[in-house]
Specification:
Largest sheet: 7 strands, mixed
Strand content: 15-25%
Shape: globular
Strand order of the largest sheet: 17-18-16-15-21-22-23
Distance between the termini: 59 Å
Mean pLDDT: 94
Number of helices: 16
Length: 497
């Protein structure tokens, strides 16, 4: 009898398949990286066909590692890197171009043109989002204008667009042989094409940005049965879709208004549950759909998105080569007592929340002859904590809710130095759950709720367990002095482009 739940977690640098039991414990998993393609400065692409092949591979290997068959799964959920845009041929299933990744900045001119005299908040009242290179809609428009014949084919219904969840679902449910072309409300809310209140594509937005409705997926709740899968998940219902950061919020069981989580991955993303009414940010945050379970009302969140977090550690490894593997960064940072006056602002793709400045570029400030690679490593870790504090300060202003603690997840939360510094900067406890990879867990929870594997939110809350907690140790004055210097370094990144 089927007794487990699966989750396909398609991230920015890798794809993973995880299997969970009823208590939320990991039964089996397998992970594979895919290529990062950089055709020009500021351009970031993925090969969507490669991602689909990796997805099939990790499902097969993930099942094999646990001695499982697809028949042992009651359902599978999908979670994905958001805003990354794929356009493919409806008949052949082949992408017309590499996927344009959320970090890509090639649509800066288009976003400026759309903003016009009104400014980047032109569509914020409908979408909750500023006009920025981050979001998927302008990426699709760029593809249609730069791939020969694409716009005409899209208008004729020959091409399909989706964020990565739609690409995975379409392939998992049959592809060109009857695949379901759907997305969920969380991913749709990251396109600049959906009205937050109607939860549907908006004609004004489609016309302005230049995306034909014929190529768009149908928008569905985050937790419902979308259809049965084909090989390698023969017949297993695909029953949950959540963008990766919303999935982490779900996996952290932040179901009450005022509960928040921060995910430390390639980027860094803090989400605060604001309930069933969208809250418009006045302080540079995004208003987004957090989740929708079946026919229940959608729940919204405020989000602070940081482009570069774990990716900065990868940069130290791959570009500067001052470490050989990512985990080494903590020991190198601990080799010095403090940052030595060095501050690293990783505005490689501009600055996201709360600044939204595509003209910014990365800066290492405060260098002296005293500085060593240890100081640079420490400054790189501290950058993630400083950026998170900027987002939290904005959330406090928008929501009026004082955060009492922060639930954290993602690959960087095993860096003890970073977590302690984060608690010191925020002035609140930082709490890491037993299952730190809550993105996949959230997708599994959404799928499990849809098929009755878990009964309700209380079932899911019962699974959450504390693994470690860091309490603030720094004084307020010391914390604020460091943060003031950080903000000074941020000011040096602006107007670079």
């Amino acid at each position: 009898m089927a007794e487990y739940i699966g989750a396909l977690d398609q991230g920015t640098t890798s794809t993973r398949f995880m299997v969970f039991d009823h208590s939320g414990e990991v039964v089996s998993s397998h992970q594979e990286e895919h290529r990062q393609i950089f055709p020009r400065p500021g351009w970031v692409e993925h090969d969507a066909a490669e991602i689909w092949e990796r997805s099939r591979l990790v499902v097969r290997k993930g099942l094999e590692r646990g001695g499982l068959r697809s028949a042992d799964l009651v359902a599978v959920g999908i979670t994905n890197q958001r805003e990354t845009a794929v356009v493919w041929d409806r008949t052949t299933g082949r992408p017309i171009h590499n996927a344009i990744v959320w970090q890509d900045t090639r649509t800066a001119d288009l976003c400026d043109e759309l903003a016009g005299q009104i400014g980047p908040d032109r569509f914020r009242s409908k979408t909750g989002l500023p006009l920025a290179t981050y979001f998927a809609g302008p990426k699709v428009s760029w593809l249609l204008d730069h791939v020969a014949g694409a716009r005409e084919r899209a208008e004729a219904g020959e091409l399909l667009f989706g964020t990565i969840d739609s690409w995975e679902l379409w392939n998992l449910t049959g592809g060109a042989s009857g695949g379901r072309h759907l997305t969920d409300v969380t991913n749709a809310s990251r396109t600049l094409l959906m009205d937050l209140r109607t939860l549907d594509w908006d004609e004004e937005l489609l016309d302005a940005i230049g995306v034909p409705r014929a190529m768009l997926p149908e928008i569905r709740p985050s937790s419902e049965v979308y259809g049965p899968a084909v090989d390698p998940l023969d017949g297993v219902p695909i029953a949950g879709i959540l963008g990766d950061q919303q999935a982490a919020l779900f996996g952290q069981t932040c179901f009450n208004v005022g509960e928040a989580k921060n995910t430390y991955g390639t980027g860094c993303f803090m989400l605060l549950n604001t309930g069933t009414e969208p809250v418009t940010s006045q302080n540079g945050l995004l208003t987004t759909v957090a989740y929708q379970v079946g026919s229940s009302p959608a729940v919204y969140a405020l989000e602070g998105s940081i482009a570069i977090a774990g990716a900065l550690v990868q940069w130290l490894r791959d570009n500067l080569e001052i470490i050989e593997s990512a985990p080494e960064v903590e020991a190198l940072a601990r080799s010095v007592d403090d940052n030595g006056g060095v501050y690293f602002v990783p505005a490689f793709s501009g600055l996201f929340a709360p600044h939204w400045r595509s003209d910014a570029r990365g800066v290492i400030a405060g260098l002296t002859r005293f500085a060593t690679r240890g100081h640079v490593a420490r400054a790189a870790l501290e950058a993630t904590a400083f950026q998170t504090r900027e987002v939290l300060d904005a959330m406090d202003l928008d929501s009026g809710v004082d955060l009492m603690s922060l639930k954290v997840d993602g690959g960087m939360v095993f860096n003890e130095l970073l977590m302690q510094f984060q608690a010191d900067q925020l002035g609140v406890p930082v709490m890491r759950p037993v299952v730190a990879e809550t993105t996949a867990l959230g997708a599994a929870y959404a799928a499990g709720l849809a098929v009755g594997y878990w009964e309700d939110f209380d079932d899911l809350r019962a699974n959450w367990g504390l693994d470690n907690q860091w309490d603030p140790m720094a004084s307020g004055s010391a914390r604020d002095e460091l943060f003031a210097q950080w903000k000074k370094a941020v000011s040096r990144t602006l107007d670079w482009v």
